[in-house]
Amino acid sequence: MLVNTFIHIPGIGPVTEKKIWQSNVLTWKDYNCFSCLNLSVSKIEDIKRFAKESTQHLENNHPGFFEAQLPSNQHFRLFPEFRHSCAYLDIETTGLETSSQITTIALYNGKDIKYFVQGKNLGAFLDEIKNYKILITYNGRSFDIPFIEEYFNVKLPHAQIDLRYILQHLGFKGGLKKCEKALGMDREDLDGVDGYFAILLWNEYQLNNNDKALETLLAYNIEDVINLETLMIKSYNLNIQNTPFFNTHTIEEPPKPKNPFKADLKTIQRLKHKYY
């Protein structure tokens, strides 16, 4: 979809982009047809210049150029071309205050699941994240990424696809779990576990040395990033549904990977009974 994109060009909005497609100018490669567009000479020159520049940035694997040019709710267009260098990311913390700490980080690249735990291997996250160009999150632009940068005192240079804005544009509002349910996704044993409960699980692990609580927390954190892949693909397909590219560009949802951790129902029920 990225090579069919023209709305990243200044002055080109969704209506004009649709007219460009209707004029049978479908990709940046249709260079010889740009002059036939019913647009001003200056606008056609802009399209030619940006088409050439965009091709170079794509060939050089520079997603940040497109992230900066596209509205946040259109960042789904980056996904297919840069899928090989994307990582789904989610963190859990001890709270929302500036003094809060990261407890676990889950990372999924579409093949491998990685997880990082405070007191064990949390620092290894900084080396692992260097392997990717794009971070895919839900509300990560406002929470996860700034929290990580503050916690580790680093600046993450990655481009970002924040599914919160993409799903809102499609009419799916609320938190991650609400969007999942609206799209028919089921968390089974982890249903009802949320960010606040993740704090309770960490406290239970720390105070009582309950490994089952940590395993449940990791199961929850990893479920987030596994489901981000499904949400990414679902939202991408929904967004291209009314474009000329739906029949050719639709992405098949891959089988859901096995979560390496399992929620402990006894721990969940005991904590719910104690705190709810």
UniProtKB/TrEMBL annotation:
One Gene Ontology molecular-function label: nucleic acid binding
Signal peptide location: none
Superkingdom classification of source: Bacteria
Domain YprB ribonuclease H-like, residue spans: 87-234
Designated name of the protein: Conserved uncharacterized protein
